[in-house]
Amino acid sequence: MLSGYAFRKLKDSKYKYPRVTSIVRNPDILLAIYLDSLIVPISELNIVWDKKMLAYVMKYYREIFLHIENLSKEKGVKLRIIVEFSKENAAFLNSLRYCDKRHLNNIMESFQISDHTACVFHFFNKQYEQLDQILWTNCRYMVERKQILFSSLWKMATPVLFEKMS
Fold it and tell me: pTM of the full predicted structure?
């Protein structure tokens, strides 16, 4: 478990040190780390969201993510996202103008990689369908493995003009 002290150290170092791989269950730290992982990147943010995670973001973080997209544009952060396209998420995805969006069927896990230095994995409470814990890591090996996976998925995914598919 990530302590408040370790979290402060991570935050102060922009999530570079100490090297940590931890399950985060504390709701306050979970939300802070999750949102920071979207806001802090200075060069690149790569996201893979399965249907459940995309639905969750659309329901609870829609405005926050639109704000993050604007921040990314202002800071010049390369923002790429791979999702499963559906009629239910078309309007939201269509509203995202800055990020590079691609479609892939049957996405099995959700994760995001910030600046090739940190990775977040999402876990849901099965009973309540709520995001109740994340695995956060800045372990170089794990982040590199997920970046390789993202790059492979990106090559397989189809660039989609969502405006034309609604």
Answer: 0.88
